[in-house]
Predict the structure.
Amino acid sequence: MQLPEWTKPALLGAGAGAIALAVIGFNWGGWMTNSSAVEMSNEQSTAAMVAALTPYCIQMSKDDPKSFSVLAELKEASSYKRRGIVEQAGWATPLGAEEPDRDLAEACQTALEIDA
């Protein structure tokens, strides 16, 4: 079987076009792999959860009878210990959860600094 003379250039052109399409699609076209999409989805859902529960955390701090001492400790603590103080106070533990949420504690302590 003999192939026509134009077959090799056509196949090379199709291969180069496919490579160019993939490069353009992933770099500028907004294409992404499944793992990148899952990672982006997880980040966005965490951000949405934190945004929704930050007012809950602030209200927990206002309702806590020990809030005055905890807020004073929060103001005196160094920046890397503040999240732990909010976690220990229980303000960053959502209803039904057994452990405090790290991202919620970060957002809560930032919001408490603004309010104070």
User: Anything to note?
Assistant: The two ends are 84 Å apart (CA to CA). The mean pLDDT is 91. Residues 11-115 form one domain. The first helix runs from residue 7 to 27.
